[in-house]
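Researcher: We are triaging several targets before committing to wet-lab work. For this one, the compound of interest is 2-acetamido-2-deoxy-beta-D-glucopyranose. I'm pasting the protein sequence and the ligand SMILES. What I need is the predicted three-dimensional arrangement of the protein with the ligand bound, expressed as structure tokens, so it can go straight into our comparison scripts without reformatting.
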Amino acid sequence: METSKILKCLFSVVLLISSFHVSPCVSFTSFVFGDSLVDAGNNDFLFTLSKADSPPYGIDFKPSGGRPTGRFTNGRTISDIIGQSLGAKSFPPPYLAPNTRAADAILRGINYASGASGILDKTGFLFIGRVPLREQVNYFEQSRNYMVNVMGENRTKEFLKKAIFSLTIGSNDILNYIQPSVTFFFGEKNSKTTLQDFMVSNLTIHLQRLHELGARKFVVVGVGPLGCIPFVRALKLLPSEQCWTKVNELVQGYNNKLKEELTRLNQEMGPEAIFVYANSYDVFSSIIINYRQYGFENADQPCCGGYFPPFVCFKRNDQNDTSVLCDDRSKYVFWDAYHPTEAANIIIAGKLLDGDKSISFPINIRELYNYNL
Ligand SMILES: *[C@@H]1O[C@H](CO)[C@@H](O)[C@H](O)[C@H]1NC(C)=O
Ligand SMILES: *[C@@H]1O[C@H](CO)[C@@H](O)[C@H](O)[C@H]1NC(C)=O
Ligand SMILES: *[C@@H]1O[C@H](CO)[C@@H](O)[C@H](O)[C@H]1NC(C)=O
């Protein structure tokens, strides 16, 4: 059964090379790297404090019937939604799930993202288990070895040329940096400029490695306005509708350097490779500021976990306790103290997919998908 699917797929890869015939199984393949914003369940299989494996996480995720899947939101993540919009028949399964097979790399793509992880290896160590970006790339290398075994080197190259490699990472590097308790463990603190530069240069190393492994279509998502998330506002005891400006400036400084670096990579490696910078900062800021225009009623409190620290979004299975949950999830921008609701993710995904150059640079994600390298 599995073998025949792969053979069918292989056959269509061959067709694709010879005649531009588009087959269902290669119409959209993505390899997803990142943190909890896009983790599709990898952390469920780690010993970690960063898990979304209990209700009400996943309450609006239809394929699971509302049960938690390890996604850190009530429904689909941004990368789930973008994949579906581009015609993916199913979501790339989490690499670490026991029922994910090596063949899924060819059939559906793979999700390597892990909650609490960062660009820097040390990021998230207080949560114990997580898969830092470097290891996520190592896992991809394993998937690629499988592809080469099954399809050969040349077909693997052709296959990977069409796939989209998205990286949504960096928030935790910055969140770790601004928390006093983490500084205490780290010892001396780098300057903000050093942090931004380390993030960009380390990320570049991972992008180059993916490129060496055959990735050509990249989407690198910048960091959002972390100074406005409930967790960070609570650290600073900020009143309603106020963000921690210094944190947002730190994020914007990083995003600017990231965008410059991606422009450089496009000059250096293009046109055989494309690096798209996805400006989630401006998209998400606009939702927070103009939330009523987008149909939301609340843009500063989490729907789940209450309005005050420690923001525990957790409901015991055996109780009808809905006290941790807001009444209408579609009216909240934030699902928990860190993550957007599915309602917000839908808006963000739509803008990144079809936005103009101020949102996705130099082309948007739909254009990247249609681009023939
Ligand atoms: C793979 O591609 C290279 C260069 O295009 C070619 O020389 C080689 O014969 C190909 N190998 C196979 C097995 O098709
Ligand atoms: C990566 O980040 C670390 C700090 O975590 C730094 O020591 C190292 O120099 C960085 N690597 C590069 C290539 O910038
Ligand atoms: C939970 O809800 C169901 C249906 O609404 C009800 O029949 C049941 O008695 C409730 N259980 C408790 C412990 O309140």
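Researcher: Any quick observations?
Model: The first strand starts at residue 30 and ends at 34.
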